[in-house]
């Protein structure tokens, strides 16, 4: 694979222009120091100083087939030469084909696809469809969740660090979803956590008034908030509650879709079919922005003769759809979904558990497929997180030291609060995964230094 050649002067110029003119997401502009990226291939990227990094983040958990897959790059180039863009009201071959392939892969009878440019817009539109379909105003969503950075999506997001950027949470009600390691219900077994979480949801619905609730939205396996696989029976229980109250069930699979968990969609692990399913990221590995909502026949019918009041200039953009068609074909031909499942079961899962056995800073290992989190703790007994909630500056010293150690060893880590997520490309080789685990092993020694005696 490609070896980086050092070109520090160009790197410095790229960085200077970035500092002068790019306004970065979620950041204090003067406090960040973004790496200047010179190139990327497969599971790796490199800078202008000759440093090569194994990417354990796959961007923001989206390059499911790795960087620069030649087949997908060629498909985008071919589409650009043929028909680079076209407005959404027309039937375009590559758009129809992308919709057909996505509908074929989504669970159950979700047969109509509304295209957006990303995940947040998918969530915005799913919620709008649910409100119009039911004629009800409220949406229930979980604490410890992430649903996107736009107005409604950010308010649905169950993380108060994000709400400061918007005006309020009108029509949004939060509840606790199951998370046994840090149980909101003081449960000690998965069965207890599941039963209590469902009772809590039912009680929340009772107090809010079922007839006021349009939808319940959940990430099938919450990602950004910590990769917390729900206990057996939970999602089936939510499905039953939704059916009983006429509430639309939305599963947000923006992060978990398209092979990430070792299935095409995480819902397959739990044998549930939502009424609406949101996707983005892995649909085309993020090569061109694309997201969307997969829609049940009942909800699609609501808009059979009544216009759907929503749309986007670039909905189903031909370049994005060409990338999606090609990505789904590559995933099938190279058996990438099966590979992610195998990698989780034989390399990442066992390897991370082995690290947890040797490093006192690892409180819990959670995940499946190419979707894992290490919950790092200061005290394994009390499960006190390695850094306080929402830590920044000096309070974040332990996680900063851990991340720095990873980067120095050539591993680019995903770090969020007291967690590191192991979310590489789904087609990373076993040897690459093992190389990453060895580097993680060394960096965890640094985290261990912050554990109380
Ligand atoms: N929903 C989930 C579950 C996500 O993980 C994300 C992004 O991380 C989003 C929605 C928002 O997607 P986007 O950033 O493409 O708008």
TrEMBL record:
<dbReference type="GO" id="GO:0030170">
    <property type="term" value="F:pyridoxal phosphate binding"/>
</dbReference>
<dbReference type="InterPro" id="IPR049704">
    <property type="entry name" value="Aminotrans_3_PPA_site"/>
</dbReference>
<protein>
    <submittedName>
        <fullName>Aspartate aminotransferase family protein</fullName>
    </submittedName>
</protein>
<dbReference type="Pfam" id="PF00202">
    <property type="entry name" value="Aminotran_3"/>
</dbReference>
<dbReference type="GO" id="GO:0005829">
    <property type="term" value="C:cytosol"/>
</dbReference>
<keyword id="KW-0032">Aminotransferase</keyword>
<dbReference type="InterPro" id="IPR015421">
    <property type="entry name" value="PyrdxlP-dep_Trfase_major"/>
</dbReference>
<dbReference type="GO" id="GO:0008483">
    <property type="term" value="F:transaminase activity"/>
</dbReference>
<keyword id="KW-0808">Transferase</keyword>
<dbReference type="InterPro" id="IPR015424">
    <property type="entry name" value="PyrdxlP-dep_Trfase"/>
</dbReference>
<comment type="similarity">
    <text>Belongs to the class-III pyridoxal-phosphate-dependent aminotransferase family.</text>
</comment>
<keyword id="KW-0663">Pyridoxal phosphate</keyword>
<dbReference type="InterPro" id="IPR005814">
    <property type="entry name" value="Aminotrans_3"/>
</dbReference>
<dbReference type="InterPro" id="IPR015422">
    <property type="entry name" value="PyrdxlP-dep_Trfase_small"/>
</dbReference>
């Amino acid at each position: 694979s490609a070896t980086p050649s050092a070109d520090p002067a160009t790197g410095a110029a790229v960085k200077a222009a970035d500092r002068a003119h790019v306004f970065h997401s979620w950041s204090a502009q003067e406090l960040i120091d973004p790496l200047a990226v010179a190139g990327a291939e497969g599971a790796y990227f490199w800078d202008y100083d000759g440093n090569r990094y194994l990417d354990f983040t796959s961007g923001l958990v989206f390059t499911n087939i790795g960087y620069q897959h030649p087949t997908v790059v060629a498909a985008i180039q071919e589409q650009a030469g043929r028909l680079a863009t076209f407005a959404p009201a027309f039937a375009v071959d590559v758009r129809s084909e992308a919709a057909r392939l996505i509908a074929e892969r989504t669970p159950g009878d979700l047969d109509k696809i509304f295209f957006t440019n990303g995940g947040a817009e998918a969530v915005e539109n799913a919620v709008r469809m649910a409100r119009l379909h039911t004629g009800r105003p409220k949406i229930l969503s979980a604490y410890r969740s992430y649903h996107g950075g736009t107005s409604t999506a950010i308010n649905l997001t169950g993380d108060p660090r994000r709400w400061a950027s918007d005006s309020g949470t009108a029509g949004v009600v939060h509840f606790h979803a199951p998370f046994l390691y840090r149980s909101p219900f003081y449960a000690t077994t998965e069965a207890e956590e599941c039963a209590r979480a469902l009772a809590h949801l039912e009680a929340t619905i009772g107090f809010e008034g079922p007839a006021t609730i349009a939808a319940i939205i959940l990430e099938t396996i919450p990602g950004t908030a910590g990769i917390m696989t729900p206990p057996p029976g939970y999602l089936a229980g939510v499905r039953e509650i939704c059916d009983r109250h006429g509430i639309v069930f939305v599963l947000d699979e923006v992060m978990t879709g398209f092979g990430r968990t070792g299935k095409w969609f995480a819902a397959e692990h739990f044998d549930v079919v939502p009424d609406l399913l949101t996707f983005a990221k892995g649909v085309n590995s993020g090569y061109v922005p694309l997201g969307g909502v997969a829609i049940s026949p009942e909800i699609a019918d609501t808009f059979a003769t009544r216009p759907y009041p929503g749309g986007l200039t670039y909905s189903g953009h031909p370049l994005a759809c060409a990338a999606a068609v090609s990505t789904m074909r590559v995933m099938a031909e190279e058996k990438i979904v099966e590979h992610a499942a195998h990698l989780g079961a034989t390399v990442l899962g066992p390897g991370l558990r082995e690290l947890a056995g040797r490093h006192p800073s690892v409180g819990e290992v959670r995940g499946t497929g190419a979707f894992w989190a290490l919950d790092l703790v200061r005290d394994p007994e009390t499960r006190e997180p390695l850094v306080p909630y929402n830590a920044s500056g000096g309070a974040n010293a332990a996680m900063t030291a851990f991340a720095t150690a990873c980067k120095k060893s050539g591993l680019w880590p995903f770090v969020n609060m007291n967690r590191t997520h192991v979310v590489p490309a789904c087609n990373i080789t076993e040897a690459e995964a093992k190389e990453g685990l060895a580097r993680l092993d060394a960096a965890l020694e640094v985290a261990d230094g912050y554990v109380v005696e």
